[in-house]
Predict the structure.
Amino acid sequence: MPVYDYEAVSCEASCAHCAKGFEIVQSIHDPRLTACPKCGSPIRRVITAPAIGRSKSKLDDRAKSAGFTKLKRLGKGEYEKMY
Ligand SMILES: [Zn+2]
């Protein structure tokens, strides 16, 4: 059965379970989840590549891409790219 990734829609309204996202095994016939099974906060399904190099490398890629788009505010309308 396929594994689906979910994450909280809002960071404020989430518990430890859904705040950083979680994986759940579902039948392709099951309806997609719209709420966290633990706290009931709205969640959305995250589309991920098939099960090759899952988990750790995926998180690393996420952190890397987040770092590349991080901008530090220098002053009025001035931004410096952070690497
Ligand atoms: Zn939750």
